[in-house]
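Task: complex structure prediction.
Instruction: return structure tokens for all chains below.
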Amino acid sequence: MSITLTLLIPVATAILLLCIPKDKTAELRMTALFGSLATLAFSLALLGGFDAQTAGFQFTEKHEWVPSLHIHYHVGIDGISLFLVVLSALLTPIAILCSWKSVEKRVREFHIALLLLTSGVIGVFVALDLMLFYVFWEVMLIPMYLLVGIWGSTERIRAAVKFFIYTMAGSLLMFLAILYLYQHTGTFSVEDIYQKPLTGTAGLLCFLAFALSFAIKVPLFPVHTWLPDAHTEAPTAGSVILAGVLLKLGIYGFIRFAIPFFPEAAVLAAPWISVLAIIGIIFGALMCFVQEDMKRLIAYSSVSHMGFVVLGLFAFNEQGVQGCVLQMVNHGISTGALFLLIGAIYERRHTRRILDFGGLAPVAPRLAIIFFITTLSSIGLPFLNGFVGEFLILQGAYSRNVFYAAFAGLGIILGAVYMLTLYRRIFFGETDREENAEMKDLEGRELAFLLPLVGLMVFLGLFSPWFTAKIQPSIEQWLKLVQTGGG
Amino acid sequence: MDHITTFLQSKLTLGQGAAAETSSGLISASDFQAILPALIFIATGTLLLMLDCFSRGLSHTDKTEKDRSSLSTAVNFLGLLGTVVAGAFACASMEQAEPSFAFQNYIRVDSFSSAVSLIIILGTFFSLLAAIDYLRRFDAEHGEFHCLVHYAAASMLLFVQANNLIMLFLAVETLSMAAYLLTSYLRDSRRSVEGGLKYFILGSFSSGFLLFGLTLVFGATGELELQEIAKSIAGGEADRSLLLAGMALVVVGMGFKVGAFPFHSWLPDAYEAAPSVATGFMSVTVKSAAIAVLLRFLLLAAEPASEAGTASVTEILSTVLSLLAIATMLFGNLVALMQNSVKRMLAYSAIGHTGYLLVGIVAALGPGGELARGAVIFYLLPYTLMSIAVFTLLGYMGRDGKDRELFEDYRGLSTSRPALALCILVVLVSFAGIPPTAGFWAKLYIFRAAIAGGHTWLALTGILASIVSLYFYLRLVVNIYMRPAEEEFDADPDSSLASGLVIAAAAAVLVILGLFPDLEFGSLIKALGK
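Output:
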């Protein structure tokens, strides 16, 4: 029941919000916040009750949904999805808190969209029925589309439509592949399809359809072009959820569906996808050097970081996959925090142009410190969360191919350079502008959602074994599945 | 030709062949019971026409605003009541497991015809409800509207129940007449009259094709009754080339009625010209009836063939239909992309939806077609709700005798009418085939059936067309939700209650059906299989 409750609480809260008059904004915000905190509490209960020794799915529930097509409401989590569920539940209250003052237009609809998005995202992570997964996968698109399109900045409509069409184009081809797969296996149950992997040309074509859909979401070069627009134009809350959770859906899709369903094709395509991932790493990093908008810079850094994650995954060895899962969570935390910080700066100065800033460190010391820790976490400094993940991915990539690791290492260096340059340009130097000199430091509300993230960065950096122990059995089982199927 | 004459004599004489089972006289009470829903529609339509004549006489002497409004309330109420009663009877006949025949086998009642009838009745009910506001706002409350809608509904019910080529043609002609008149219903509007005339000329032309096709089918098989035709084809007695020509001409004639490319050219003009409520009514009911009859008719030749020659009739037809489906899907959705008028966009998207339905029909003709038959019927239900809802919205937006049809006119609707905008969002999401709405399952069933039947290319084209369609459905969402209004929209809540009700009900059903899509279609499919 606990997974279903985690899924239903945001929906129930959204329905509750519909009953509150739209001008009572304070009540609306509080209700939404409590609803999202309740969701977080339930997801933490899942974390607490999780048995780290078991490789299979836990907390499973299975009910008939559409008997004529053998579609079930079948949910459950394993080590791979566990932390992603918690991450999604964690970022929602943060997104609500960070919009407390910045979103004043259509407050009710905003929170409804945010809560429905949470449900959709968690649904994708827990679904063990292919059609149920697809339903959640598409359901979450609409609220995200509205979040970008209604509450975004100037170019929001173009960005929203681009985001939607890109994602849907991929999804619909995957839909066709799902139906094809059903025709051949006669089931939508994920675990049953694992037992009958599809091979040959049909398997390759289906893999490509799945892979395209997930690659767009990740996003993998060259289908990444929606991301800089969507990230830049989205409101802060939207960017946080986009970067923190939505990008992980693509990777998760590869892990849970595309690769184990078609292991033969996945192994065949792995070198190609790895090369694309490396191009993404280098290209994303280079793009960061020429950005003038800080949000756009972080967006391109996401392209680079997600390239690492894909590279680790397609190494198909223990270190690589472990690093991939770890880095998904890490990227969610640190990039989420970066978007929150930039959102905070934007609320004060109403500009995101890097040139408009300089010398903020003495003016806003709290902001400067948190931004610094987040930057370090993002570039993978030891003792912070990013380090372990990147290290494992490099290790995995190295044992696959030395050149992969060499290029990825270059990407890490470039990453350090552009992030530290960004930091220098914003926080150091002369405080030459009056607006900057008068800028207020972070307030209590902002610290309330930033400090937990900083705490997590340190915690995950210091105690990563606690974390990897929970993922380990599931990954071992997953690798067996891929290796037996992929030959 | 001699044998045809002999057959004509034998088949047109009453009381022969399978008709012998109704031995107690020519017409019995059970015959009337079979067509009760249609009879109720005819009775209500005539009653409303009489009522209107009576009120005209009254209006010349002393017409007061109050008299008129109470009269129009009575007309509306009676019209809706007749629809509900007809629906109740159609529901009742859905229960019966075995098909029953009436009027010397001219009429066949089974759960398939009853299900399609119900969809038609549902569409009629919603159209009449939406018409309450619309006609009042456009000052066009004449009894003919209700009368025409009721007559059209009655003939559509007879159309789907028809079990005889003559009956089939009579019904389709009656319903077409009503549709032509409804298109030109706003007789003071040049556009409406012009559209109606265009529809009439092209429609008559297509009726000619249909009649010719039916004649050839009769010539090939020597039978008028549908199941006798099927038997004759299955037995290999039919003349193959005549049959093929006949079937092909029927496909052309029916292709016109459903708006399949390249027989679609009347559709955008007629849809645009007709008053929005009439467009909504025609777009769903005529299409549902025509698709159902086309499906049933083509299945006649799909019996397992005893000879190699007869199987290829179905094969050829299904190849032709596949090409039509591909062209229709791509054409409808691509052209809809370029429209600036919402009404024309919807007209072209209606063509696109015909394409998806044709995919279902192609799949239904192949092996394992039972899935596809259920899928086609399922598709019609959400399609009915979605179309009626958007055309009701179009009617609702109309002000001062003019439709507001451009995309720009919908700007900022979400701020002035948030609840309405939410319902329309649901409807558009369903149109685009995104869960959790019924439109998603409709597409799923169709494409799944296509893949099961080995028509992966059709499914792929359908998917590509759906991707294109996202853009123009989204365009309306963008205007409703994301762009601010240029001028304040004058919403007059007191005259929009019925429209709001229609849209809200449609949205609610779409979501409920989207969450629980597994309606019981088993009995339907069985009925068709027989």
